[in-house]
Design goal:
Blueprint: E1 8-11, H1 13-26, E2 31-35, H2 37-41, H3 45-52, E3 58-61, H4 64-72, E4 79-81, H5 88-96, E5 100-103, H6 106-115, E6 123-127, H7 139-149, E7 156-160, H8 173-183, E8 190-191, H9 195-200, E9 208-209, E10 235-247, E11 252-253, E12 259-260, E13 265-270, E14 287-290, E15 293-298, E16 306-309, E17 321-328, E18 331-333, H10 335-341, H11 346-351, E19 359-361
Parallel strand pairs: 1-19, 2-3, 2-9, 3-4, 4-5, 5-6, 6-7, 7-8
Antiparallel strand pairs: 1-10, 10-13, 10-17, 11-12, 13-16, 14-15, 14-17, 15-16, 17-18
Helix pairs in contact: 1-3, 5-6, 6-7
Bound molecules: pyridoxal-5'-phosphate (PLP).
């Protein structure tokens, strides 16, 4: 719904495409699943699919229903179900629409064996638990899985795993070693790398990489910025100043009076709160831009509003444009910096963008959906 309340999110399809191309340049011998799960990390599944459909090697997401919607919209590339199938119906849809499915446990394999028509072509990603302890076969259950798979001789199998600390100090070598131990003499295709591994551990790239956050222009690393990585922000959250207050020393701001002015100040109230998806945990001091200038938030974020310091931006009054994150007319604020201030990651900020925020395409060129 278009509203006159000034908050807007703008999504840049060209940024998504450029970032995907950057992932491909880093992994030039691999194909790349464009990860569009979680409504394309809050950017809109169709916006991301439209931006990438001419070039993506494949799309990865969670729900079978969304995969079918992509097929219905004419997407012909491989589509990977990252958590696999949940029902017999999913298996039938998967076979009929040539979806690729992760298989991470024996129960899923049984579901597949029981519902795949004899000889039907089928493509599977066997997920191995190499230390993250979330999903995947252990060495013992993998032996059983491979025995069961002999009943599906037509299955095209890729071995995959997921890294727990590709962005961290411990790195990936320990998981790669377990992966190699578990796969033994496997010479078929493999898939290991998320964004962090694509950028930092190129030896893990394998046949298919799985970039997510990087295609949305945020950094998977705490200590390296998206700009340093050559990524372009794909989501900008903008609003405007809707109130101005002059504070005397000792005046407090917002619920709980969490901020106290220690000098005379001028503050602006922005039409953006946690019901728009702005993190309530963002403390006073979180970066924000007004009229092209960087400043800081003050006080607690409320449902519909937050406040920022305009003391050094006297020309900013009611209606002055504000960038909450991204690259807007009011200036540039990396989502990663807002996330860090709020004790979270840009993934969560993007995914939390609220349905009440109107979204528009920031287009220099868009690829149309057929
Ligand atoms: C979400 C996801 C990814 C993408 O991870 P990023 O850190 O966003 O690049 C890759 N692989 C799997 C299995 C995932 O679930």
């Amino acid at each position: 719904m278009k509203t006159s309340r000034p908050i807007r999110a703008r999504i840049a399809p060209t940024a998504i495409l450029q970032n995907y191309r950057l992932a491909k340049r880093h992994a030039s011998n691999s194909k790349a699943w464009a990860v569009v799960k979680a409504n394309a990390y809050g950017h809109g599944q169709w916006r991301a699919v439209d931006a990438l459909r001419a070039e993506a090697d494949g799309f990865a997401l969670l729900e079978c229903e969304n995969a079918l919607a992509l097929r219905e919209a004419g997407v012909t590339q491989p589509i990977l179900l990252l958590e696999g199938i949940f029902s017999a119906r999913d298996v039938r849809a998967m076979v009929e629409h040539r979806l690729t499915s992760v298989v991470h446990c024996l129960e899923q394999l049984e579901l597949l064996l029981g519902n795949t028509p004899a000889g039907a072509p089928i493509s599977l990603y066997l997920k191995l638990n190499t230390g993250m302890n979330r999903l995947g076969f252990t060495a013992a259950s993998l032996t059983k899985a491979r025995q069961m798979l002999e009943k599906l001789p037509q299955a095209e199998v890729t071995m995959m795993t997921h890294f727990a600390e590709a962005d961290g100090e411990r790195g990936v070598a320990w998981q790669v070693e377990r992966f190699q131990q578990m796969t033994g003499d496997w010479r078929g295709p493999v898939s290991l790398a998320n964004s962090a591994a694509i950028l930092r551990h190129p030896q893990t790239q394998g046949n298919w990489v799985r970039p997510g956050i990087m295609i949305y222009g945020a950094s998977p690393f705490a200590e390296q910025s998206a700009t340093e990585l050559g990524l372009q922000p794909a989501m900008t959250l903008e609003s405007a100043i809707i109130g101005v207050q002059e504070l005397a020393v000792g005046d407090r701001v917002g619920y709980g009076g969490g901020f106290t002015a220690d000098k005379p100040m001028r503050i602006g109230v922005v039409a953006c709160g946690y019901a728009d998806g702005y993190p309530r945990h963002a403390p006073s001091g979180t970066p924000i831009a007004v009229l092209g200038l960087r400043t800081k938030t003050v006080g607690r974020v409320s449902m519909d509003m937050l406040a920022c310091d305009l003391t050094d931006i006297p020309e900013a009054g009611i209606g002055a444009p504000v960038t909450l994150w991204g690259e807007g007319i009011a200036g540039s604020v990396p989502a990663d910096e807002v996330a860090t201030a709020a004790g979270t990651i840009a993934y969560e900020l993007f995914c939390a963008l609220a349905p009440r925020v109107p979204v528009s395409l920031d287009e220099t060129s868009t690829v149309n959906r057929k």
